[in-house]
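Module 6 notes. Inverse folding takes a fixed backbone as the condition and produces residue identities as the prediction. Think of it as a translation problem where the source language is geometry and the target language is the twenty amino acids. Below is one complete input and output pair. Work through it position by position during the lab.
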């Protein structure tokens, strides 16, 4: 499994600090540190994708107050890791058996 960043508050300021040079895997978590959603974003898209979860009503994750991320080599590797995390942790807002 990959090593995720330390958990950060799910704020626009923290999202804007995300590196954009590689694909990422991310978790949106509750204040109780429960994984609510796991997702991926391709290189150059991480900040935009997390801002969508923060600002677009149809993409919001209810109760999501914190997040973690990890950079990975490419989007294909991110998809593999995302599947592993979803299978293991079964986040409430992810489709299971993805």
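Target side of the pair, the amino acids:
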């Amino acid at each position: 499994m990959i090593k995720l960043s330390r958990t950060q508050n799910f704020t626009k300021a923290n999202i804007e600090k995300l590196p954009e040079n590689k694909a990422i895997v991310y978790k949106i978590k509750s204040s109780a540190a429960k994984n609510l959603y796991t997702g991926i974003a391709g290189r150059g898209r991480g900040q935009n994708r997390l801002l969508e979860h923060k600002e677009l009503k149809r993409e919001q994750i209810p109760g999501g107050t914190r997040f973690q991320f990890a950079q990975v080599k490419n989007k294909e590797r991110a998809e593999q890791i995302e599947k592993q995390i979803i299978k293991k942790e079964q986040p409430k807002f992810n489709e299971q058996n993805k």
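Reference fact for the lab report: The helical segments are 12-15, 46-55, 75-89.
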